[in-house]
Amino acid sequence: MKMLAMSLLAMWFSLGAALAQIDTKATPETTALYRNLKKLSEEHILFGHQHATEYGHGWTGAGERSDVKSVTGSHPAVIGVDFMGLSGQPEDQIAKTAAALRKNVIDTYNRGGITTVAWHFANPASEGGFYWKDGVSKASMALIKPGGSHHEQYRQILKTIADFAHSVKGKDNTLAPMIFRPFHEFDGDWFWWGKGHTSKEDFIAVWRFTVSYLRDQLGVHNFIYAFSPDNKFTSEYEFLERYPGNEWVDMVGMDNYGDFGRDGKYNLEAGLKKLEIVSEYAQKHGKLAAFTETGLESIPNPAWWTETLLKTLKARKLQLAYVLVWRNDTKSPTHYYAPFPGQLSEADFVRFYHDPYTLFEKDLKDVYK
């Protein structure tokens, strides 16, 4: 019996070493989510949709609604939100934005779903918003890093995020874990934090400060930190060009629209190779992996879900925690990435939903335990 106990203990420590979570003070729910996502990724993938319950195709703010639920009967397992509104606005507007966002995150948590957070972060040192605008935007990563002219301003912005992280308490009075994905698609030039506007050294310095300040100074212990470039790499070396180090990242991912049908162009072999790079790196280093953004705008391909996305995901022994498609705009007749009732790919999406490999919110059981 004693030998068995020692063996089980050894297995537990081995699992702990394999799963290299970077916050040793993470809440029990956050640690449980981390471990459960890793376990689920061995046989399944969770489906996610950005802004799924905030608004959809032709509607907004409708309580328990989502376009995915209208088609399948279940919300996505992973719901994407954004910290975009927590800076760059008047204080009263930030408070209003935070209140709505808080309700969304808590509601998802109470249902047993998972929240992932993007950050379309308005440039703190210039006009121009989160996109890079020639002649307007400043290359601000160098300015917000420690010692930079706008570093104190950046610290204040992170305090607002920390206050939010401390506020999302569910019905059991525990904090909702969130997958936090700052500075995404950094290998492109369309955002002010992109590769063409900041050095590798400055990018890494800001990333490390962000994690350290939130975790070690502001006491945020319900974040899982995700690193997600766009699809511009073809090797592990290129994927890791701006990687801040294993001690600063919980999850590795990739955003990839270009290989999966954008503008009618498909290169599924290239997309699969990149997913393999992400998945294999995570397995080697005890990290989570995810397909952090993808999708086909307007979904004109009626079999895209099963013949493009699902077939690619199942083509190799990938271990990806989730795949997330982008948002369904409220007013645009063409800007949507998940089907709604009557949309061309609806029937195929139902087949995608019923495949045993994919998991939606209704399929999740005690991911925080």
From TrEMBL:
<dbReference type="InterPro" id="IPR022790">
    <property type="entry name" value="GH26_dom"/>
</dbReference>
<keyword id="KW-0326">Glycosidase</keyword>
<keyword id="KW-0964">Secreted</keyword>
<dbReference type="InterPro" id="IPR016714">
    <property type="entry name" value="MANB/E"/>
</dbReference>
<dbReference type="Pfam" id="PF02156">
    <property type="entry name" value="Glyco_hydro_26"/>
</dbReference>
<comment type="similarity">
    <text>Belongs to the glycosyl hydrolase 26 family.</text>
</comment>
<feature type="signal peptide">
    <location>
        <begin position="1"/>
        <end position="20"/>
    </location>
</feature>
<keyword id="KW-0732">Signal</keyword>
<protein>
    <recommendedName>
        <fullName>Mannan endo-1,4-beta-mannosidase</fullName>
        <ecNumber>3.2.1.78</ecNumber>
    </recommendedName>
</protein>
<feature type="active site" description="Nucleophile">
    <location>
        <position position="293"/>
    </location>
</feature>
<keyword id="KW-0119">Carbohydrate metabolism</keyword>
<feature type="active site" description="Proton donor">
    <location>
        <position position="185"/>
    </location>
</feature>
<dbReference type="InterPro" id="IPR000805">
    <property type="entry name" value="Glyco_hydro_26"/>
</dbReference>
<dbReference type="InterPro" id="IPR017853">
    <property type="entry name" value="GH"/>
</dbReference>
<keyword id="KW-0378">Hydrolase</keyword>
<feature type="domain" description="GH26">
    <location>
        <begin position="28"/>
        <end position="362"/>
    </location>
</feature>
